[in-house]
Specification:
alpha/beta; 2-enoyl-CoA Hydratase, Chain A, domain 1; Lyase 2-enoyl-coa Hydratase, Chain  A, domain 2; 2 domains; 11 helices; 10 strands; globular; binds hexanoyl-coenzyme A; Enoyl-CoA_hyd/isom_CS; 3-hydroxyacyl-CoA dehydratase activity; EC 4.2.1.17; Enoyl-CoA_hydra/iso; Enoyl-CoA_hydra_C
Length: about 260
């Protein structure tokens, strides 16, 4: 598979996708989003891959939706082409865990894309913002919803209404990112984390991911009930039998992803 706006690499059980439009700070145009969708489809279909890393360049994860592209569109254009809905949301629908490795700018749609991922690791130079208000538009790829769930109402309101950026330390403090990593180590650290996750039972990892995501879709008692059902399901997998047996027999488990 060849792409023009991203680079797809396989590192054993990890798929690494690097956004690659250096001339435009990785601004997200239709071609890039179509290619990202195709790359994620391919990685999801590949049984040798257990987790995915999405990265940009040192300078930019992505500077948002491509403004030059959007400038040509009126309301009926975005309505008819189902802008965002058509080709932006694949990352949020991945069954396999997706880790965003964010260095440099994650602006607008770039920040929203990172927030569609399951874990965000940030380099020290990461800068998150939803500056759409400066263009007289608003976040349209989930930013008002996901940022609010991640950091709470007051901070989300401030960022969305004023466009104020958040740097890595603040992003870690308020829970938008899981941790900060030195820039030089970021992608390797994300691949190492992804590889660890990918080494566990893939169906059980998928169940765990579903349960965490359920927390954003349901009330507590419904979410806990969902979790309980999923935990019961793990008792039906060969990997869970193996995991428990390996502990008791004091040996490493051999998961077969069933
Ligand atoms: C298209 C972009 C771009 C973008 C940068 N470029 N961001 N092109 N869309 N989002 C292009 C510039 O036009 C320029 O192209 C080249 O990248 C270099 O950018 P400069 O501005 O010259 O560089 P610099 O001064 O270093 O500033 C970098 C920057 C700034 C901070 C990233 O470009 C910027 O603020 N960009 C816009 C960020 C933004 O507002 N994002 C949110 C978009 S709206 P040329 O051809 O001149 O070299 C969105 C969601 C909308 O994401 C959803 C609506 C439903």
């Amino acid at each position: 598979m060849t792409f023009e706006t991203l680079i797809l690499e396989k590192h054993d059980n990890v798929g690494l996708v690097r956004l690659n439009r250096p001339e435009a700070y990785n601004a997200l145009n239709d071609q890039l989003m179509d290619e990202l969708t195709a790359a994620l489809d391919a990685l999801e279909a590949d049984d040798s891959i257990g987790a995915i890393v999405l990265a940009g360049s040192d300078k930019a994860f992505a500077a948002g939706a491509d403004i030059k592209m959007m400038r040509e569109w009126g309301m009926m254009d975005v309505f008819k082409r189902q802008f965002i809905t058509a080709n932006w949301e694949r990352a949020s629908r991945c069954r396999k865990p997706v880790i965003a490795a964010v260095s440099g700018l994650a602006l607008g749609g770039g920040c929203e894309l990172a927030m569609m991922c399951d874990i965000i690791l940030a380099a020290e130079n990461a800068r998150f913002a939803l500056p759409e208000i400066t263009l007289a538009t608003i976040p349209g790829a989930g930013g008002t919803q996901r940022l609010t769930r991640a950091v709470g109402k007051s901070k989300a309101m401030e960022m969305i209404l004023s466009g104020r950026p958040m740097f890595a330390e603040e992003a870690e403090r308020c829970g938008l990112v899981s941790r900060i990593v030195p820039l030089a180590d970021l992608v390797q650290e994300a691949v190492t984390l992804a590889s660890r996750v990918a080494g566990f039972s893939q169906p059980v990892v998928a169940l765990a991911k579903e349960c965490v995501n359920r927390a954003f879709e349901s009330g507590l008692s419904e979410g806990v009930l969902y979790e309980r059902r999923m935990a019961y399901i793990t008792f039906g997998t060969e990997d869970q039998s193996e995991g428990l047996a390996a502990f008791v027999e004091k040996r490493p488990p051999q998961f077969i992803h069933r």
